[in-house]
Design a protein that fits this description.
By secondary structure, the protein is mainly α. About 75% of the residues lie in helices and about 0% in strands.
């Protein structure tokens, strides 16, 4: 039993379960915005299945990524201590965990509505396929953003069983947000990627300085799209006040990292990004309570 709990703990550490906080608030935003257009809104049961679908999707994506990148991680000083190359978990154990995560996603999608279940293979292909994009394109950061951006779209479909412009724009918001800060995160592997012919990244392609400029442009697009969503969804002043705070967090994040100083990447990536999504969710919630 102690071995089981130890392996379970290692699995959660491997998939960085706590980082679900990045995409989960946007999924909940998609659910809340869809509820505004749906008689009766969402149910507690629906919320539960959305949360389980999110956990299943992210766990499947991260475990597949660790399997796909195990040999590459072993060559990188920053990642060689990860669970598979370090021998903490075996490939077979991670495969079983991944299959269970996929099953959780599919069951959750089926319980939500037929359209969610019908679209789930597309979502699965995107979240798993991202792991291989870094092998052939420097735009891999955008693919990660696209895969993560499915979360709010899926949550919208879970409530309304249909699509419209607002959830698609929300998906683009996540694409630019995730893609922009993944470029920042990739700066840590710049020197290693230069030596590794099979690996691609935007910093490797255009250099650190230009990569940061592109990251800032993407985050500017993110804020612009959030303004458009507020107008299209007829949100109130509280939402736009929240956008001011979110914009300030993004500017702060960008100011922490410079081409010749990436010592504060972890603060920008792990701390501030979590606050970006949580802050936006908070203001969407209180804006919905505005009378």
């Amino acid at each position: 039993m102690s071995t089981f709990f130890y392996k379970s703990k290692q699995m959660l550490e491997m998939v960085r379960f706590e980082h679900t906080i990045f995409a989960l608030p946007f999924a909940l935003i998609g659910m809340l915005l869809a509820s505004r257009e749906t008689p009766g809104g969402f149910t507690v049961e629906m919320l539960g299945w959305i949360l389980l679908a999110m956990v299943g999707a992210r766990s499947a994506a991260m475990s597949f990524n660790r399997l796909a990148d195990a040999s590459l991680d072993a060559k990188n000083p920053r990642t060689k201590s990860r669970h598979i190359p370090a021998g903490i978990l075996t490939r077979s154990q991670v495969v079983i965990f991944m299959l269970c995560s996929i099953l959780l996603l599919e069951i959750s999608a089926l319980e939500l509505n037929p359209l969610c279940f019908a679209l789930s293979p597309i979502a699965l292909f995107a979240i798993l396929g991202y792991s291989y994009t870094k092998r052939f394109t420097s735009l891999c950061h955008l693919f990660l953003g696209f895969a993560t951006g499915i979360a709010p779209i899926g949550a919208w479909v879970a409530v309304k069983a249909s699509l419209s412009l607002v959830p698609l724009l929300l998906g683009l918001v996540v694409l630019f947000w995730i893609g922009g800060f993944d470029i920042i995160y990739a700066l840590q592997d710049y020197e290693h990627d230069l030596k590794e012919v099979s690996m691609h990244s935007l910093p490797k392609k255009v250099g650190k300085r230009n990569a940061l400029i592109i990251s800032r442009i993407m985050h500017t697009c993110m804020i612009s799209l959030l303004i458009a969503i507020g107008l299209l969804a007829h949100l109130h002043i509280l939402y736009f006040i929240g956008l001011v705070i979110v914009s300030s967090l993004i500017i702060w994040e960008q100011s922490l990292v410079k081409p010749d100083d990436i010592s504060r990447v972890n603060l920008a990536f792990f701390t501030l990004n979590g606050w970006v999504s949580i802050t936006l969710l908070f203001f969407v919630i209180i804006d919905g309570l505005w009378k």
